[in-house]
Amino acid sequence: MDATLVALSGGFAAILTPGTLYYIFIGSLIGTLIGVLPGIGPLAALSLLLPATVALPPVAAIAMLSAIFYGSMYGGSITSILVNIPGEAASVVTCLDGHAMARQGRAGPALGMAALGSFIAGTLGIVVLTFFSPALSVFAIRLGPPEYCALMVLGLACTILMIEGSAFKGMIMIGLGAGFATQGMDVVSGEFRFTFNSIDLTAGIELIAVVIGLFGVSEILTNVEKSEGGIAVKTKLRNLWPSAKDWAASWAPILRGSGLGFAVGLVPGGGPVTASFLSYALERRVARDPSGFGQGRIEGVAGPEAANNAAVSSGMIPLLSLGIPGNAVTALLMGALIINGVQPGPMLIVENPQIFWGVVASLYVGNVFLLILNLPLVGLWVQLLRVPYSVLFPTIVLLAMVGTYSANRNIFDLWVMLGFGVLGWFLRKLDYELAPLVLAFVLAPLLEQSLRQSMVMSADGAWIFLARPVAATLLGLSAILLIFVALKGRSANNKGATP
Amino acid sequence: MNLTRRGLVAATAMLPAAAGAQDARARLNALKPAGFPREPIEMTVVYPAGGGMDITARVVQRFFEKATGERSLVNNRTGGAGLVGHTWLATQAPADGHAVGIVANLIFSDAVRSQGRWSWTDLDHIAHINAEPLNLVVNAEGPFRQGGLPAILEAARARPGTIRALNVPGGYYEYLIEQLEAAAGARFLRVPFQGGAPGITALLGNNIDLGFGFFAEVRGHLAANRLLPIAVTGRTRTVFLPDTPTVNNVTGRDDVNWGVSRWVAIPKAVPADRKAWLAAAFHAAINDPEAAAEFRNLGALPDPALNTPEALQADVVRMAQAERDFLIASGRAQR
Amino acid sequence: MSALHIGVGLFWVLFGLALAQQSVALGLSGPGGPGSGLFPLLAAILITTGGLGVLAGDLRRGVAAGPFWAVPGAGLRIGLLILVMAAMILAVPYLGFALSGALGLPLLFRTLSPRASWWLALLVGLVAATVVHLLFAVALGTPLPRGPLGF
Predict the structure, then answer these.
(1) What's the number of CA atoms in the CB half-sphere (13 Å) around residue A405?
(2) What is the pLDDT of residue A234?
(3) B242 CB contacts (<8 Å, ≥6 apart)?
(4) Model confidence over A11-69: pLDDT tens digits?
């Protein structure tokens, strides 16, 4: 413990120079911006800025790139809350209660709690990273396909919990999400599914295009349908800061979100998106009075926002401790390390302690910068609501188009975005929930891949899941969850009589 | 400090330029057609940012800018495990010389998968970058930590279908496993993964027994004694692992020669003068001693025999033919 | 509205069945485990079952009939929005984002604010397109398709 603190203080010493601090700040700023802009995400931004980091010393380079990553988790909630359009896939669930709060004139507390929750969760995550990295990485490395599969099953079980309205409609949404996800290349067999001889379709459907279309474009269409200039959000605010009551309601979701997000982010394939969805489902489940979720419960903002930031922190552990990338962004960070002449791997902390601890220290500092950047600006962001929708919405459309294009530089993604936009608008009219579709879209491919890998690996077929303790435990949890749901119903607040 | 590309170019231009470098630049400028390039040269990589091809491309890009003083950028066109990007390069890339592809011998299988839409012959192959073999690795604390490749082959022969090997369907990993099986009369349990890197992760956790990786992917784990190298797939041993035998050494045959070879390709229709300048520019970039040092660090070496576009073209034809022969011999393709 | 609901329910059932058929064609089992078609089949089962449930529920209870469009004129607005967005996407490879935006945004603005003047619409379009272009193409350096004017 002492040795760790000494090493960490060495890391701080390494980064508390004007130059490095400047780059952490720039990264935080760009990250927030990326989060706000719908469509363009941290992966695209990091790819663009990677060349610029070559001229920087390694610590500054990685610190800046990481700051963009977790910065985008702060910024994504802003548009979700203000205009019901997610800036990031990891901010989709924040739209549900966050925007409802904004409509009630409580945009300020929503934004503030999102920022504070993000900060607390991010920092807690980094503290755990600081002290428990070695033990956690040893544990994480032993997880294999059966464990991932069980985890995904648990995640999907939670999806079922999220469904508020008709169970049958929810089934259709999950089926659609899983079905859309199978389109493209089957990684297990190398075959193409549903590509109808088109090269563009071999790439599969891009998540960003789905999210921006389903939640962004459809939101604009829905709003415009209801009234000419769009529905105005109350700009006369009751107050700008979270009240004591808000804190009383939020501290537990923040802690729960931090824990859940941290666990989900540690696993390869899990990440901020899954973490935010699962946190929302968890908060719905554990709330003493689940009524009002979707209509402005601050727990629905605090929990998911905490979860997605915690997931970023824990996602850094396999990268820094083991040299294993868990998702596309950390894979890019690994590439950045290599380009900067640093060899990632278990020896990083031994051979280059100043880089390891410098990056860890930068995570603390970056989160502080982001809190400073985001909190005071709450008042400013809320002024965005004064812009008439006839100006705001077309601008968002263009931003969304460019942002979605930047993911793969493929015009086809724009058609996907528009298509899902129309689909989302139509489905919303008919009372279908869109969140389960997105979650199934994210989880199903991971589930499928790990399931099929497990079946190939196992000599005994499906018994492998019971033979491995972690997998068996997770599956047991899922079973309990599903039985619970079947017996007691999904929530005390079943919307309407439709089964 | 200026973070834009101009700033970056300015910074790299400040690197000490020896008189030789001035000469080289002058020679390049003599070849440069008027009014070209008008915009940054776009180097397309068909794999995600941060991966092995991408890192190589970015090294090439840096030294290209250093050698020519022209702007350039790396563009990742991902999708379909490379198919989308290769298709764009072969069919849609503008032929005005501004679009360039950093490709590898993986393009051959994508040409087959395109089902006749394009072929690697639609591109001109102008500058060889580097090549490296695949490394076979096992877990240093796993059941095969002793005995090397012979032991694991023997186990796969004695207990067919139980030894778990990393497989990425439809590529060299699969061909390699087939050849190992044929050589030893063995049968592996092929566990499918999306790429080499997730497989290495599984190997580290003892979830599979045999893995394959490129040097940059496994180097950190080799140094930390988490993984052991047991063979390499080239025709000769690599300088990075001098004590590790080649697969051919172990099996006593000579049919295993899978590795990755990387080079620069451009659309065939690019005008000849621009083509010549691009070839010379990339040649200058790749042969910069500092570039060679960086590639060395990444575990890949250039082949000095492929120093001209003609030699490269011949080698590309040879590699494509060798792969096609294998596909026919293994029953995957018709004659 | 009830005809629409029945239609949608039927669509799910039929779509699910079609997907199921395609999935079986892909192959349900492969070497060592499930094949490519298994998960699409599971998805198809979910969709078909859900569709049947929704259909049964709608037929049993009947759906409150109401106009499809909440507000008169909404249909026109929605149609225009979708059309303009589609036109913009078509235009981007030839005109680039900035120009397509400068042309398309005024149309979107006018659809949302029919009483505003065309001059205001053009101004909004120009300013928004410029800001977006500066943000993405200049500040971030995103490679974007260029139009005839070079940006």
Answers:
(1) 19
(2) 61
(3) none
(4) 898 889 998 999 999 999 999 999 998 888 898 889 888 888 888 899 999 999 999 99
The total domain count for chain A is 1
A389 sits in which H/E element: helix A389-408
In chain A, which among 402-421 make CB contacts under 8 A with chain B? 408-410
CA-based nearest residue to A214, from A423, A405, A389: A423
In angstroms, rounded to a whole number, what is the distance separating the alpha carbons of residues C55 and C9? 5
Question: With an 8 Å Cβ cutoff, is A174 touching chain C?
Answer: yes
Q: Is the pLDDT of residue A170 over 80?
A: yes
pLDDT for residue A258: 96
Write the CA distances from A448 to A179, A291, A462, C25, integer angstroms.
Answer: 11, 34, 14, 18
Taking CB atoms and an 8 Å cut-off, how many pairs form between chains A and B? Answer: 150
B226 in reach of chain A (CB within 8 A): yes
Give the list of residues 6+ apart from residue B135 with CB closer than 8 angstroms, or none: B212, B213, B214, B215, B218, B229, B231, B232, B233, B241, B244
Task: Please name the residues between 231 and 290 in chain B that touch chain A, using a CB distance below 8 Å.
Answer: none
E strands present in chain B: 41-45, 72-76, 99-104, 123-133, 135-139, 164-167, 189-192, 211-213, 227-232, 259-267
Would you say residue A73 lies in a domain?
yes
Binning pLDDT at 50, 70 and 90, where does residue B44 land?
very high
HSE-CB for A108 with a 13 A CA cutoff: 15
Collapsing DSSP states into helix, strand and coil, what is residue B243? coil
Residue A496 lies in a domain: no
Task: Give how far B310 is from chain A: nearest CA, Å.
Answer: 31
- Chain A residue numbers with beta carbons less than 8 Å from the beta carbon of C86 are 418
Q: Do A175 and C44 touch (CB under 8 A)?
A: yes
Residues of C in Cβ contact (< 8 Å) with B6: none
Q: Cβ C46–A175 below 8 Å, yes or no? A: yes
Task: Determine the distance in angstroms separating the CA of B4 from the nearest CA of chain C, rounded to an integer.
Answer: 8
Handedness of CA A466, A467, A468, A473 (dihedral sign): positive
- Give the model's pLDDT for residue B3: 47
Is residue A177 within 8 A of residue A441, CB to CB? The reply is yes
User: Does B42 sit within 8 Å of C143, measured CB to CB?
Assistant: yes
A224-277, pLDDT tens digit by residue?
A: 888 765 555 665 556 778 888 899 999 999 999 999 999 999 887 778 999 999
The pLDDT tens digits for A416-462 are 999 999 999 999 999 899 989 999 999 999 899 999 999 888 877 78
Report the distance separating Cα B166 and Cα A453, nearest Å.
11
Q: Which of A345-359, B13-27, C61-75 has the highest mean pLDDT?
A: A345-359
Q: What angle, 0 to 180 degrees and rounded to 10, lies between the N-to-C axes of helices A42-49 and A328-339?
A: 10
Query: A499 falls in which pLDDT band (50, 70, 90)?
Result: very low
Chains touching chain C, criterion 3+ CB pairs below 8 Å: A, B
Of A335-339, A480-484, B213-217, the poorest mean pLDDT is in A480-484
Separation CA B48–CA A331 (nearest Å)? 9
CA–CA separation, B18 vs B12, rounded Å? Answer: 14
Return the closest-CA partner of residue A108 out of A379, A478, A474, A447.
Answer: A379
Q: B74 at the A interface (CB within 8 A)? A: yes
Note whether A495 contacts C: Cβ–Cβ < 8 A.
no
ipTM (interface pTM): 0.94
Domains in chain C: boundaries? 2-61, 74-139
Confidence of residue B6 (pLDDT cuts 50, 70, 90): low
Highest mean pLDDT among A416-420, B220-224, C30-34, C141-145: A416-420
What does the DSSP 8-state code read for residue B88?
A: I
For chain B, list the domains and their CATH numbers.
Answer: 5-132+260-329 (3.40.190.150), 135-251 (3.40.190.10)
Please answer yes or no on whether C12 and A172 come within 8 Å at the CB atom.
yes
